[in-house]
Structures are given as structure tokens and as C-alpha cells.
Specification:
By secondary structure, this protein is of the alpha/beta class. It folds into 2 domains: about 70-250, Aspartate Aminotransferase, domain 2 (3-Layer(aba) Sandwich), CATH 3.40.640; about 265-400, Aspartate Aminotransferase, domain 1 (Alpha-Beta Complex), CATH 3.90.1150. It has 16 helices and 12 strands. It has helices at about 5-10, 15-20, 50-55, 70-85, 95-105, 120-130, 145-150, 175-185, 195-200, 235-245, 255-265, 265-285, 305-310, 325-335, 365-370, 385-400; strands spanning about 85-90, 110-115, 135-140, 155-160, 185-190, 210-215, 225-230, 290-295, 315-320, 340, 350-355, 375-380. Strands 1-7-6-5-4-2-3 form a 7-stranded mixed sheet, with helices on both faces. The protein has a 5-stranded mixed sheet with strand order 8-9-12-11-10. α2 packs antiparallel against α4 (about 70-85). The chain is globular and about 75 Å long. Bound molecules: pyridoxal-5'-phosphate. Pyridoxal-5'-phosphate binds near residues 94, 122 and 162. Its EC number is 2.5.1.-.
Length: about 400
């Protein structure tokens, strides 16, 4: 069993559901049905000559689990084939994936343009971390294509966005932003966590790099952290290979195994969670205690046409604003009996988040207001419970708001 064995198991001709179950499997001499978990740091060699050849890259095979590992290779291969990418690398967390994809290709003097509306830690990387190393960044209103165009400079190397955005579920025009980036000689990196690989394929829309927090829907059962970067072979060879080997943001083989098994049920879970989210959105849309509801699958979403064009379905998330601000939102959250209060998403358990005091607490009130994250805003992540139990629970809790 070797790295080259993983790449031979191409299932590209099959539909995503089939790829999620079979892609990348490396079967050992024992013929196990379920993929094996290789909990090993390192590898032994038949001879000193073989060891030398392995280090020279002349003998295919594993060297050290910071570089690669059979269980990690199976997870990576399954993600690569699901996404339809040329290549990919896994990481210990979603933030390790974002930080590596954004930082590794850059040097002092480069410039990055990113959408303002994004996961709090991603915004920290772009807004606070990069400038400390001499990499300038400009944040734009991601919905405004003119702002992207005007922000481009001769030294702009990367553009970065997430869509739908966290937590306000705006949908950004990936094809048009990719075109603007490419015209300026820059690459587009897309954080596809909220859309999931089931509903959106940024590479097919023109993006160059896709990143995931596998912690979310890919695990989907709240067990472990992980991340993934998908791109061309050239991007990885040129920018990631050495950076990742030497700096070590590696995924653990145990977590890779959990995530690999999570992928087998990803399509089934995401479809069920999306159906539930759509039902919750429809049930709450005109609720008297809610001033605004946003769901990418509804006809009243501000970018409904774009959703149809670039996504295969809405989302597993719903955003809504409880009338009466923070106090009312807290009363509603505290009254829930089925959905649980958490900052996570994509889980089998439905989770509710108050972004202003958690994921986006670090931002100034002005920055939050600019993003539409009001004190009453709540993010709902649909789980796998019966939709009617969730709707009844939310309606009862809103009565307490
Ligand atoms: C959670 C999340 C991340 C970070 O992932 P971790 O696995 O928690 O490090 C990045 N981007 C988005 C959109 C996320 O939701």
C-alpha cells in the first residue's frame, strides 16, 4: 500500500454519493470492509538503501506522519475526488487550512483583498496577522463587485471570501470575483464551509483554492477538528508542500479516520439538514417576534438569482433577528429545549448561536453593524432531529422572547 495506490483508485466517473463512500480507500492485505486506522508516527524500512530512496523521492511510500500517513491519504483522496480537484492537503483544523492557504504563498510586500463578512478567526488572519509580516490587506463589501475591482493593486496576490457568509448568509458572486482576481493576476481562495461540497463547487465556478473546516458538516457529529485545502497540483507543489512539511499543521490519523467515515454519510446528512433548515425558515419567516429572516433557499433572499446560479440548494443554516435586541434573543435561546446553544454548526444536533457575543464578539459594534450582525441576530444550524420538533421548540422559545 502506498501513496500511488491511493491515486489509482479514481472514482471520478461516479456521482458524488458514490465517491463519498468509495473514493480513496486503501485496503490492506486483510481485506477489511471499513478503512483501517493507521495510528503510527513513523515507518520502518527494509534496508538503509530503501530509506535513502524514500527520502530522495525515488521509492513511493511513507516517511513520517507529519508528511503523510495512509489513513490521512485516504481522507485527502476522498475529499479531492468529491471536490473534483487535482490535489489537496488536510490540516489539523479549519483555521490551519485557512492560515496555510492564505499565508504560505505570500511574502512581505504582497497584498490581499478579502470580503469583510467572514468567520471571526479568518478575519483576524487577514486583518491583524498578515500586516504584521508586511503583507497588506484590504477588506471590501463582498457583494459590491466595484469594491473588489477598485481594491486590486499590482502586488495583489490573493483574494479571499466565504459564501454564504457567516453569519448573515449573504451570497457572493464567485465567478465574477474570480474573473476580477484573475484579471489582476491574483488567485481566489474560497472558504466553502457554509455551502458544503454537496451544494457548491467553487473550483468549477473559477476559484483557484477551496478550504474547509472539516470540523463542521464533514465530521458532522461534533467529535473532532480538521481542515482541508483543495487546489491544482501546481499550487500545492509551489506553495504548500514544503511549507506544510516543515511547519507541521498536520491532521492526526485518528481524526482523519473519523472524518473519512463522516464523509460516507455527508450527502445524506446535508440533504436532510437542508430540508429541515428550509422548513424552519418557512415556518419562522413571518413570525411576529422576528424582524428579519435570511435563508439562501428562499425566494426572498437578497441574492436569490445568484443562489440558483451557483449553488445546488440553499444551506443548513438560517439567520433571523429577534425583535428586542440582545435581551430578547437571550430569552429565546435560554427557552429552547431541543436546539442547543453553541458556537458550532453543521452538527447532527441543532445548534443556535448569538454571533454578536460569541463568534463576532471581537469586532467593534460599528464593524458588526456594518455586517448586519445586530444584537438580536441568531444563527440556527439545522441538525438531524424531526423538523416539527425543532419548529415547535423555536416557536415556543420565541414566545418567551
Ligand atoms: C469553523 C469555521 C472555520 C474554522 O474551522 P476550525 O475547524 O474551527 O478551525 C473557518 N471558516 C468557517 C466559515 C468556519 O465556519
Amino acid at each position: 500500500m502506498s501513496e500511488s495506490a491511493a491515486s489509482k483508485s479514481s472514482t471520478a466517473r461516479y456521482r458524488p454519493e458514490t465517491r463519498l463512500v468509495h473514493s480513496g480507500t486503501l485496503r490492506s492485505q486483510f481485506g477489511e470492509t471499513s478503512e483501517a486506522m493507521f495510528l503510527t508516527q513513523g515507518y520502518v524500512y527494509d534496508s538503509a538503501e530503501q530509506c535513502e530512496a524514500r527520502f530522495k523521492g525515488e521509492d513511493p511510500g511513507y516517511i513520517y506522519s507529519r508528511y503523510s500517513n495512509p489513513t490521512i491519504a485516504m481522507f485527502e483522496r476522498r475529499m479531492i475526488e468529491l471536490e473534483g480537484a487535482e490535489a489537496g492537503r488536510s490540516t489539523a483544523t479549519g483555521m490551519a487550512a485557512v492560515t496555510t492557504a492564505v499565508l504560505a504563498p505570500l511574502k512581505a510586500g504582497d497584498h490581499v483583498v478579502a470580503s469583510k463578512a467572514m468567520f471571526g478567526s479568518c478575519r483576524y488572519v487577514v486583518e491583524d496577522l498578515l500586516p504584521r509580516y508586511g503583507i497588506a490587506s484590504t477588506l471590501v463589501d463582498g457583494l459590491d463587485l466595484d469594491q473588489w475591482k477598485k481594491a486590486m493593486r499590482p502586488n495583489t496576490r490573493s483574494c479571499f471570501l466565504e459564501s454564504p457568509t457567516n453569519p448573515t448568509l449573504d451570497v457572493l458572486d464567485i465567478s465574477s470575483i474570480a474573473e476580477i482576481a484573475h484579471q489582476a493576476g491574483a488567485r481566489l481562495i474560497v472558504d466553502n464551509v457554509f455551502a458544503t461540497p454537496i451544494w457548491q463547487s467553487p473550483l468549477a465556478l473559477g476559484a483557484d483554492v477551496v478550504v474547509y473546516s472539516a470540523t463542521k458538516h464533514i465530521d458532522g457529529q461534533g467529535r473532532c477538528l480538521g481542515g482541508m485545502i483543495l487546489s491544482s497540483e501546481a499550487f500545492i507543489a509551489e506553495h504548500l508542500h514544503n511549507f506544510m512539511r516543515q511547519t507541521g499543521p498536520s491532521l492526526s490519523p485518528f481524526n482523519a479516520w473519523v472524518l473519512l467515515k463522516g464523509l460516507e454519510t455527508l450527502a445524506v446528512r446535508v440533504r436532510a439538514q437542508t430540508d429541515t433548515a428550509a422548513k424552519v425558515a418557512d415556518a419562522l419567516a413571518r413570525h411576529p417576534k422576528i424582524s428579519r429572516l435570511i435563508y439562501p433557499g428562499r425566494a426572498d433572499h437578497p441574492q436569490a438569482d445568484l443562489v440558483k446560479k451557483q449553488m445546488r440548494a440553499g444551506s443548513t443554516l438560517v439567520g433571523f433577528e429577534v425583535k428586542g435586541g440582545k435581551a430578547a434573543a437571550f430569552r429565546c435561546l435560554n427557552a429552547l429545549k431541543v436546539s442547543r446553544i453553541s458556537n458550532n454548526l453543521g452538527d447532527a444536533k441543532s445548534l443556535v448561536t448569538h454571533p454578536a457575543t460569541t463568534t463576532h464578539q471581537r469586532l467593534t459594534p460599528e464593524a458588526r453593524a456594518e455586517l448586519g450582525i445586530s444584537e438580536g441576530f441568531v444563527r440556527f444550524s439545522a441538525g438531524l432531529e424531526h423538523p416539527d420538533d425543532l419548529i415547535e421548540d423555536l416557536q415556543a422559545a420565541l414566545e418567551q422572547a
